[in-house]
Amino acid sequence: GVWQARIVTLFPDAFPGVLGLSLTGKALQDGRWQLHTHDLRSFGVGKHRNVDDTPAGGGAGMVMRADVVGPAIEAAQRFARGRWPILYMSPRGRPFTQEMAKDLARCDGVTVLCGRFEGVDERVLEHFGVTEVSIGDYVLTGGEIAAQTVLDATVRLLPGVLGNVESTVEESHSNGLLEHPQFTRPALWEGHAIPDVLMSGNHAEIAKWREAESHRLTQRRRPDLWAAKTGKD
Ligand code: ADE
Fold it and tell me: Of all protein residues, whose CA lies closest to atom 10 belonging to ligand 1?
């Protein structure tokens, strides 16, 4: 079957969102991947379909109930037959990387749990072997935007989603470095010229310039990436 994303969320209306546009949207329309939502509210308990309760031990906010989230994940995983991972979007998670996107693109799909409030009952994460993933060191209102970030980065790597023009080989992070700057016409804009070497037609010199710019940018902006790549600072 085709690669599929199963989203467990209180806000199914947030999907496909931006994933329904441009490259990922075209690929969705073309059947290169599928997106399915599982509405947590429909698993809610009691007359009011409650999904959360106060934290055990006291404290601020509300926690999503294990007896709500558990059955919702089970419903999503019925389609996985044990063949794909379950992610929980959380600022406590492992930082998301291009390598994780590549790994997900090699699976048959993914189930993504989007939290709201103070989080999800820890027993659910343990029970299903859920992987907690963060998209960065800041706190979002909920996991939906984070889930879309992970899916966008993954779906563009699926076979046939990117054309040849948008190559994944030369882009930032594919080689552990930041990409060189880009320019296009007009040659002169507001008194700023395109660097001469790019207008020279000398492809060896252009390649050398781009590599030097990539190294310069990475050293300046991302000393962490530069150290990981070269072992130097
Ligand atoms: N949910 C709230 N903040 C988040 C973050 N930084 N990454 C992933 N999921 C989140």
Answer: 90
Work out which ligand 1 atom sits closest to the CA atom of 137. 6
Instruction: Among 108, 127, 155, give the residue marking a domain's end.
Output: 155
Domain that holds residue 232: 170-233
Higher-pLDDT residue of 124, 166: 124
One domain for residues 142 and 194:
no
Q: Is 198 annotated as a binding-site member?
A: no
In degrees to the nearest 10, what's the CA dihedral of 42, 44, 45, 49? -80
The average pLDDT across 142-157 equals 98
Q: CA quadruple 91, 93, 95, 99: dihedral positive or negative?
A: negative
- Ligand 1 mutation target, pool 132, 139, 148, most atoms within 8 A of CB: 139
Q: What is the pTM of this model?
A: 0.96
Give, as one character, the DSSP assignment of residue 179.
P
What is the mean pLDDT of the segment spanning 134-159?
97
Residue 83 lies in a domain: yes
Distance 118 CA to ligand 1 centre (A): 11
25 and 133 part of one domain: yes
ipTM score over 0.90, yes or no: yes
